[in-house]
Amino acid sequence: MDKTAIVTGGAGGMGLATARILGADHHVVLTDVRRDRLDAAVAELASAGVSAQAELCDITDRPAVDTLFATAVATGQVRAVVHSAGVSPQMGSAETIVKINAVGTVNVTEAALTMAHDGSALVNVASIAGHMLPGFLVPKRTYRLASTDVDKFTRKLVATASRGPEKMRPGSAYSLSKNFVIWYSQDRAAAFGARGARILSVSPGTFDTEMGRLEEKSGSARLLEYAALKRFGRPEEIAELLAFCASDKPGYLTGTDILCDGGTKAGLGLKDMISMARHS
Fold it and tell me: CATH no. for residue 164?
């Protein structure tokens, strides 16, 4: 195959499900931080007839991300990137969440931009949590630092997430980091467009993945009370959307976010969101 797709967080969940679809007409470079899970994912894809390879990569390390993209280019023209790697509130401190979700997205996005070309696409995975941050709490001045001073951006975003009670800080960092993913994907659209390329984000709601089930502890399942569809989403459902957005079919789709949440946000009012935050 002369086309390559990179899928971060590809060892399981929605990343692996997306790789399975993209693999129909792309060589897939899967990346994650655990070799055992990556190897198992590649073996699973191979059994389904998908050409894939595993590459370890810490997305918080820009040189490592650059190496990942260089490795992928050696296999064929990188036409699609789906950036699904990330962590949730139960998986780390506010600082860890900011570094992986926000700084990791900066690193992947900027690496993808250097190799962007006519018809290529980057899809960043955000979250419904990014839509639940009130506008007056969105620190856009801090967000803008991501393009000029990543270290200062990181410090300020961690400080913003750490203003409340300690137990709420990981959740705050998660909402902020995912709101940033949405903002940054829109902010960088012109730069990608200048190369004939696209960038957008997709915001999943509550999905039946390992991470999604882990977050039941923080009350994520309560979101289903407000959803139009009273169930967890399936990984293959969000994967279809991610793969479509990364394909060449929606060639005019860029600089926006697509919310895929089973109608959850449609049923949430401001008081409901405040209540969710207090009980998370």
Answer: 3.40.50.720
